[in-house]
Amino acid sequence: MGKCSSWKLKGITLLASLYLSLVGFQKSAYAQPDGEKIFTANCASCHHPVEPKVGPALKGAKKRWADAGVAEEIYNWIKDPSTTASKVPYAKDLKAQYDAKGTPIMSAQMLSKEEMDAVLDYADNWVDKGDTGSTAGVAHDKKYFDEMFEEEGSSWTLWLIVLGVIFTTIALGMGGVRKQLTGAQLAQLNKPVDERTTYAGEIRNWLWHNKKLASVVGLVLTFMLLSAGWYGLKDIGVYEGYRPTQPIWFSHEVHAGINKINCQYCHSTVEKSRHASLPTPMVCMNCHKNIKKGTITGTDEIAKIYKAVGFDPQNNVYIENAKTEPIKWVKVHALPDHVYFNHSQHVVAG
C-alpha cells in the first residue's frame, strides 16, 4: 500500500511539473508585445511620442482619457474611432479638433488590448536618447548633391577635346617648320624640292619605311579600341553612383530613419506588386499638411509639394481651381533584362 502511494505521489509530482512547464512555456510564448516595434510599424507615420504631427502626441494619452472619465474608451477609439466619436463626448471633441484642421480621422487599428497598452506605455516612458538618427549624414549627402549638380556641366570629354586640339596644332606647326627646313636644306644642295608633298604623303612614306614598328603600333591601337568598345557596350545602362537631379530633394534617411515611417506607408503597393510604386503627392500631404518645415531643407522643398497639389500653407486650405503641376520624378534604378526582382515576394516573405 505504501509503495503504491509512493508511485502515485511521484506521478502527481511529475504531472504538476509538466503543467508548470507548459504554463511557463505559454507565458514565454505570449510575452509582452514590443511597444516600440508596434509603434514604428503602425503609428509613427502620423504620431510622435511627445510632439504633435498629423495626429496628437501619444505620451500621456491614457491619463488624458482617464481624467475625462473614459479610461477604457481609449481602446475602442483606437479600434474604431468613428463609432467611438459618435458615442463618447471626449472622443467627439477630439475628432472635432482635427476636423477643424482638415485632418481626416485615423483608420481603425487591428491591435489587441495588450499591444495597445504596449504602445501607450512605450509613449509614456519615451525618452529622447539621441540615437534616433542624426541629420549630419543627411546634410553631408545634400551638400554632395548640390556640389555635384553645380559641376554637372563640366566633362572630361571637353578637356580631352581641348587637349587634342592643342596637340594637333603643335604637331601641324612642327610639321610645317620641318618641311621648311627640309626645303632649305635641299636648296643648298641644289636638289629639287617637291612642293606637292603633303602631310598624308609623308605619313605614308614613313609607314612604308617602318613597316614592323607601324604594324605593332597598329595592332596595339586596334586592341585598345576593341577593348574600349567592348567595355563601353557592356556597361550600357549600368551607372555606378548614378544620382540624377530630382524635382524635389528627398531623403529616405530622414523619413524612414529619423522619423521611422514604415516603408509600406508611402510605397503602398509593394506587398502586392513587383514594383515599389511611388507615393502620390496626396500621400505626402497626409503628413506635410501639418509639417511645413523639413529637417534639412526648411520650407523650400515642401513648398514644391504644395505647388503640385494647389495647397495654401498659410491658411491651411486647398486652393479652389488652382493650377497644379505633377511631380516628375526621375527613374534611378533600371534592372538588366536577365534580372527578375519582385518586391512583393521579398516584403511578404520577409
Helix and strand sequence:
HHHHHHHHHHHHHHHEEH
Low-confidence stretches: 25-30, 131-136
Mean pLDDT, to the nearest integer, reads: 76
Q: Report strand order across the widest sheet.
A: 1-2
Count of individual beta strands = 2
Radius of gyration, whole Å: 37 Å
Percent in helix: 55-70%
Specify the oligomeric state: single chain
Q: Report strand %.
A: under 5%
* Overall 3D shape: elongated
Q: Note the main sheet.
A: 2 strands, antiparallel
Instruction: Kindly report how far apart the N and C termini lie.
Output: 60 Å
Structural class label: mainly alpha
Helix count equals 16
Structural overview:
With 350 residues, the protein is mostly helical. Helices cover 57% and strands 1% of the residues. It has helices at residues 2-29, 35-42, 61-67, 73-79, 81-87, 89-100, 113-124, 135-150, 156-188, 199-209, 211-234, 252-258, 263-266, 281-288, 300-309, 343-349, and strands at residues 311-312, 317-318. The radius of gyration is 37 Å and the shape is elongated. The two termini are 60 Å apart.
